[in-house]
Amino acid sequence: MKVRKAIIPAAGLGTRMLPATKTVPKEMLPMVDKPVIQYIIEEAVASGIEDILIVTNRAKSAMDDYFDYYPELEERLDRAGKEKELAEVRRAADLANIFYVRQKETKGLGHAIGRARHFVGNEPFAVLLGDDIMRAEKPVIGQLIRAAEAYSAPVVGIQRVDPEQISKYSSVKILPKEDRIYGVADMNEKPTKSERLSDYAILGRYVLTPEIFDILENLKPGFGGEIQLTDGLRELCKRRNMMAVDFEGRRYDTGNLRGFLEATIDFALEHPETGAWLKRFLKDKAEIL
Ligand code: UTP
Question: Is this prediction's pTM over 0.85?
């Protein structure tokens, strides 16, 4: 099993980041000097993905424009001798083969993934949520792809979370297999602490197989009245072998204000142009607080 394609669902309404996300897609908010979605595409590309489908909606056309050439701007940068800026602007447009499909109604993550059926065909595919940035030595989706290829099975990315926080995620019932790799026996969406199946939650990365599409098409709305991917995965893990990878890396949920600010500070501290300055700035601030 070889994974060559990825889907980035990015058609959510971003209500946790209003009013900023009323007209600017949350995936296009700047994370230091690049939009959030560029980090996610770079992770996919670093994991060997060649073709990427972004699921968008009518309010998100800024994304298609960003991954296109912009001759007028490029000429201006060229004439001004701004080689570094020119290279960066071009690089974004040349990262991968990027395709788009619209989710015409905001009916949930499961419904958004269903829009990718024709793009995917009969191959396994990776899914990277458009607002979850991962910082890791080995790209996180690559860690999942390796397990999917080794076990010929769909895979979910998991990490242990505070039991008080599990109701924000899906919990998974897992069976140990080898270091960091588990079998998946069951899962539930946004459980209460007492309903949780373990302290492990599914966090923003998946490798799926095409059987998921028939399952998603026949699903009834679940939690919040939406077509929930977790309900589809629950059905899939009952039909065939599914694995979970306790991935190495730090996840940032940039779809909420705190996660967005944590990522901004960590990334700016590592950035060669802002790192040393921000460290001093934060130290000075800490002294007066
Ligand atoms: P989230 O619940 O994190 O995103 O969905 P949201 O719905 O945009 O956020 P809030 O809760 O209103 O702030 C998880 C992922 O699924 C996508 C989102 O874009 C995000 O990547 N999604 C969600 C869709 O593509 N379509 C949907 O109908 C719902």
Answer: yes
